[in-house]
Design a protein that fits this description.
This protein is mainly alpha-helical and about 240 residues long. It is built from 8 helices and no strands.
Length: about 240
């Protein structure tokens, strides 16, 4: 796919991701009136898994389109075809623009939608929380990449459940966002996107955790890969 096409896909998916999460909350909590009820939370989780499958399918048909800067950074640091500079100065800005447009539009149409994720703890614990959650999901994603690439359903299922679990764990602390573009969209709408706590918690910490996660995964898996290659070479001789 041409680079312009990838940028358009990223912006569109980021826009749609913001809408998907918001519409699920509107449907379950406001339309159906199931706020603070067990069946409401169960329905919200089920719908969240459903739209995660939908976005995984969009990523598949777009050949790499993504709504999360951490995903494309992970590809870039893992030696992906697009390269770091195109990712940093092309794809990530497109995702941020898509998220901002999505948040502004949905707040215009549904004024009672809320204010998005907020930091409810101090900046240091918030950074550790978002960093740890991101590190864990990066490790899961890297592990799934090593598995059979044809098992779309199983990989998407494991990834979705992992993301939802981590989101729930961090929801009362930082929102459990693990998506700088989405967090920026809501922060921009509130006018606090340039505050230090936003930059540290929702950008710096997750990006550092992504790099550390990829480095850790390589450290744990490359020795085994090299050993296996040497064993295969000996057998062939």
């Amino acid at each position: 796919m041409a680079k312009a096409g990838i940028i358009l896909w990223d912006a569109a998916m980021s826009f749609a991701w913001v809408w998907a999460g918001s519409l699920v909350k509107l449907l379950v909590f406001d339309v159906l009136g199931l706020r603070h009820r067990p069946e409401g939370e169960a329905l919200k989780l089920a719908l969240s898994v459903a739209y995660m499958f939908f976005f995984a399918w969009l990523a598949h048909i777009s050949r790499g389109g993504a709504y999360n800067p951490l995903t494309v950074l992970s590809y870039a640091f893992s030696g992906g075809p697009n390269g770091f500079f195109f990712t940093a100065f092309g794809r990530i800005p497109a995702q941020v623009i898509g998220a901002v447009a999505g948040v502004l539009l949905i707040r215009e149409i549904f004024p009672a939608i809320g204010h998005g994720p907020r930091l409810s703890i101090d900046i240091h614990r918030g950074a550790w929380t978002e960093g740890l959650l991101t590190f864990m999901i990066v490790m899961v994603s890297q592990t799934l990449k090593k598995k059979d690439p044809r098992s779309f359903f199983m990989q998407t299922w494991i990834s979705s459940i992992s993301k939802l679990t981590l989101h729930i764990l961090g929801s009362d602390l930082t929102g459990g966002v693990m998506n700088p573009a989405s967090a920026f969209g809501w922060a921009f709408a509130r006018g606090d996107h340039i505050k230090l706590e936003h930059i540290i918690v929702y950008w710096f910490a997750p990006i550092q955790a992504t790099i550390f996660g990829i480095w850790t995964f390589r450290l744990l898996t490359e020795p085994k890969s090299k050993q296996k290659s040497e064993e295969d070479k000996v057998k062939s001789e």
